[in-house]
Amino acid sequence: MAVFVDLNITNCMEVKKLQSLIEMAAHLGYSAVAINHVAEFEKKKVEIAKPISIKDLFPSPPTVQGKASPINILTRLTIKASDPSHYNVLRSTSPVTRLYDIVAVCPTTEKLFHAACTNIDVDMICINVTEKSPFYFKRPSINSAIERGIFFELIYTPAIKDSTIRRYTISNAINLMEICKGKVSDDLVL
């Protein structure tokens, strides 16, 4: 039986809107969702907020359509950075990152991509496949990530709107899948 999840529900300040999105996901049959807090490192020091409390959001989570179980609500931290020093916050001893269920990174350079695949403690590597990739995917890095149990997320939502972006998306996704030998986890984004 297929299980649907959305691991990228953007954390917004409007609690009612967030509740509505999660209720809609449950109504559509999604078994799990992750509320994504994005931290963009443009300066040397960025404060990472604590995740939203699920108990504050819902006293009891909505029931998944067609199942008797409630929707599983996770928290996710995504770090977008351009410098390797920004990823120091991801050390397993960091008290803030331990509060999140899923930790993801969006590397913007080949050096950061290689570091994320080989030695940064993350669950997921986000890859923007909607534009020409600024670096090539290399088999040793990808294999290292697969061996460590790291998943790849392909951000393809913008491809719905534009044919040029769609071409880049398909080309980059095929390139990654050929290198991964089909071992890619692509997540649906609402």
TrEMBL record:
Segments passing through the bilayer: none
Main location: nucleus
Keyword DNA damage: no
Localization of this protein: Nucleus
Record's keyword annotation contains tRNA processing: yes
Keywords per UniProt: tRNA processing
Family of the protein in this entry: Belongs to the eukaryotic/archaeal RNase P protein component 3 family.
Name of this protein: Uncharacterized protein
Organism, scientific name: Ranitomeya imitator
